[in-house]
Amino acid sequence: MLVHSLDEIFSMAKSTHWATREECFEQLILHLEPSSPPGRFHGALLGDSTHFANLLASHIDDAHYKVSQAALQTAINAISIEALAVSLSNHLHLLIPSILNQVSERSGGGGG
């Protein structure tokens, strides 16, 4: 089921249940598919890029691997859209630590 409200999607990320958090990112992935027409949704993400970057950063290294994978895929889809890539580039200080932490954990490097 496709949820249309960005606020509703963002609120799903706050759930204590991993499947609801995963669904948040699955919904974002659907909206950010290359075949998805740009429109109000992309504009809303551009207008709230700090919140979007914080959302990605806080879930790319989520404790549940399915949420983490979905958040990372969302980031990949977002940066494949030029306007979102430019917008998110202003928030690399939020995103890079989470991405590096995830890469380190996946490679067996553990944390600090």
Task: Give a verbal description of the structure.
The protein is mainly alpha-helical and 112 residues long.
Task: Give descriptors for this structure.
7 helices; globular; mainly alpha; single chain; 112 residues; 71% helix
Shape: globular
Number of strands: 0
Helix amount, in percent? over 70%
Give helix and strand order, one letter per element, not per position.
HHHHHHH
Number of helices: 7
Task: Output mean pLDDT.
Answer: 86
What is the total domain count? 1
Q: Calculate Rg over CA atoms.
A: 13 Å
Low-confidence spans: pLDDT under 50, at least 5 residues?
Answer: none
Estimate the strand proportion.
under 5%
Distance between the termini: 40 Å
Supply the helix-strand structural class: mainly alpha
Major sheet: none
